[in-house]
Amino acid sequence: MTLDPVLLSRLQWAWVIAWHILLPAFTVGLASYIAVLEGLYFFTGREIWFRISGFWTRIFAVSFGMGVVSGIIMPFQFGTNWSRFTDATADVLSPLMAYEGLMAFFLEASFLGVLLFGRRLVPTWAHFFAAVMVAVGTLFSSFWILATNSWMQTPQGYSFVNGRFEPVDWIAIVFNPSFPYRLLHNVTAFYITTAFVVLGVGAWLLRRARAVEEARTMMRMALDLLILIVPLQMFLGDQHGLNTLEYQPAKLAAIEGRYDTVQPVPLTLFGIPDDDAATMRAAIDIPDLGGLILTHSWNGTIKGLKEWPPDQRPPVAPPFFAFRIMVGIAFIMLFVAAAGQVLRLRGRLWGCVWFLRLAQAVAPLGFVAVIAGWITTEIGRQPWTVYGLLRTADSVSPSLTGADVALSLALYVMVYLIMFPTGIAFMAGLVRRGPQQEEPQFESIESGRPNRPFETAARTGAE
Amino acid sequence: MVLDLVPLWTILLGLAVFYYVVFDGFDLGVGMLYGLAPGDRSLLMNSVAPVWDGNETWLVFGGLGLLTAFPLAFAIIIPALYFPILIMLLALVFRGVAFEFRFKRPALRRFWDGAFCGGSLVATFAQGIVLGTFIQGFKVDGRHFTGTSFDWVTPFALLTGLALVFGYGLLGAAWLVLKTEGDLQEWARRAGRVCLIAVLIAILAVSIWTPLTNVEISRRWFGWPNIALLSPVPIVTALIAFAEWYALTHRHELTPFLGAIGLFLMSYVGIAISLWPMIVPFHYSLWQAASSESTQAFILIGTLFLLPVILMYTAWSYWVFRGKVRADIGYH
To answer: What is the rounded radius of gyration, in angstroms, for the C-alpha atoms of chain B?
Structure first.
């Protein structure tokens, strides 16, 4: 078997971005949560907000640091492995990526220093301000990078000259047809992911009767948010689906597992897709329902994959299964959010062991859903990098050999397998420590004493 | 043509790269010195803990600036430097997470200490190789790099790799002179002097080697009247070198850092003079590799608004953490 630089470059891209996306999936929501907590502390002065905020800020620091370092790798991937894609699209896409760097990366990274280390150095309002800026930074980050991704899915506002895309209308480029849906769907997914982690951590603390007041507050806040945004997310996902039907019908056909165009359209709950034979084996169908869900009408129709030549069809299995995993998780999430509210209204939430266990068990589900959704949309776009215009196979750097990419992929795998498990274990350690009664003053000094103990003590006393 | 934005973007990108080299340079330098320093090494790490990730994001800005303003250069240079960039990025990952991980697990402390120091060293060396390969030029056909992924293995690139290790070491030592006191500061002064001598030897070697291997560069520096017009470059460099030695041996605290920046600036100017106006040596000029005017204008609007803000709050961050480093402020 010869090593294919295109396939290996795709695997490498998938590897580095799949790990990277886990961090924004968590930090975008957590940054907003911390900003809210800091705001509550600033306006009410109650210590509990300060303690909860401090607890999550320590975890945020680790996850953000990992996000920064794994994020720095991403723009360079465009050059190292996808230089022909870069040459073709840079005039259109590079400013969007540069805006992400400008607006977000700096906003986050610079104010983060104050947020993490400035608690005793700046006044409360400045600390609150830094928290807000970090949160705003993460949202801008999402805005620009999703504009970039959406343009690759639904390009517009360009002219195509000598195999290269030239910008014509920037508003049209940024606000391309799939962008508003993708942005809202993603940011909501990030908030949900964070809320489930907060809920799970709160439940874990509560079951051990530790930091009870803080744990209850965390769970209350998470449940109140979830009962609003989980249904909202289902609505947004449905709207995003309608958008995909209009602009990327081949992707939608792959998601639905439809090879043949039929009317009325059944809903395929499950099956085993066979791309070579272009047929769905062992399919479990519900008649007519597919048309209703996809087109919001009983006699709507969608095109099957056979309408496209075989070299323009995405593989069906990854988007088909990933989509079903994502939707399945959405229903589990809806159940947990609703059950939590019902128990709370009856005043039984805090003693309900099965629910606390369940809340712990579902804490990582947001991450699974994010990855599943990402697989759905990215593999569904294949075989194109720019939908319908630039093929993935024509995007790779021409100088690379399969051996080059195999070596680099092996190195990325090795480093990430050290870094991410360590980071996750480290964050788990911070969770186990729980919220602290007081901000620890000198506990970071393993290797010695403060340089000037008296002066430092005096300063602490003055606070 | 409405307005030629290429000169402006050249200046902006040039400044961004220089900013990155100086600022991440000092924290990479501190990382390398961390492996050698005596006594309380946490102070070294804490001296850069609040600012390192802000510094490192300038690498992204440099990369994105090249991509946005000169995409053809990005599409040729980055694949040509496939492995040096890979190694640099992975090394930066390692040292970056070491900041976070080191303080938690005593059992793994030594591993993460090694990652912090070794990662800094490898990242710096890889950046030096990038520099050397860039100066030597690339094999290009049409709009693509056509060499192999190992073209960067040359004696010259290994020399520039070594040069940058000592260069960042000098910046790091000068930063420590500024941020620490007592024995540690004295040690930093000694380390700085060692690095300074090595850096000067490296600058001299590169200055002789480059014109010897490239006729065009030789003519630019030694042809008349250029030799007279450009003579301030080596003279000022020599003066800064003497001042730096003096500052490192006397009681100056800020001057060594400024002097180290001065040496980097003069080397940078020297390379720019040698290669101007090439952005893909020796195939494409800045103008040939530039993105469309509309692209450059679109991102320029945001840059002109945001860059001053970014610089202001970066300055604010440094102001908040000014003065000698305290042992109680750092990663917990």
So the answer is: 20
Q: Model confidence at A432, in pLDDT bands (50, 70, 90)?
A: confident
For A388-406, write each residue's pLDDT tens digit. Answer: 888 898 889 888 888 889 9
Q: In chain B, which among 33-62 make CB contacts under 8 A with chain A?
A: 40-42, 49-51, 53-54, 56-57, 59-61
Q: Quick one: B169 exposed, middle or buried, by C-beta within 10 A (0-12, 13-18, 19+)?
A: buried
CA distances from residue A206 to A199, A200, A340, B128, B215 in whole angstroms, order as listed: 10, 10, 14, 53, 75
Instruction: Find out whether B331 and A444 touch, Cβ atoms under 8 Å.
Output: yes
Sorted by sequence, the CB contacts under 8 Å of residue A447 that are 6+ apart come out as B40, B41, B42
pLDDT in tens, A165-189: 989 999 999 999 999 999 999 999 9
- Domain extent listing, chain A: 5-439
d(CA A221, CA A191): 12
**pLDDT band at residue A449, thresholds of 50, 70 and 90?**
very low
Query: B-chain residues within 8 Å CB-CB of A426?
Result: 100-101, 104-105
For chain A, how far is it from start to end, CA to CA, in angstroms?
68
Q: Which of A69, A408, A446 sits opposite B97 (nearest CB)?
A: A69
Nearest CA in chain B to A71: B60
Chain B positions in Cβ-Cβ contact with residue A113 (cut-off 8 Å) = 50-51, 53-54, 317, 320-321
Phi/psi of residue A264, nearest 5 degrees: -75, 160
Instruction: Sketch the domain layout of chain B as residue ranges.
Output: 6-320
List of residues 6+ apart from A174 with CB closer than 8 A:
A96, A147, A151
CA distance A270 to chain B (A): 41
Output the furthest CA–CA distance in chain B (Å, rounded). Answer: 64
- The reported pTM is 0.85
From A142, A140, A148, select the one nearest A178 (Cα to Cα).
A148
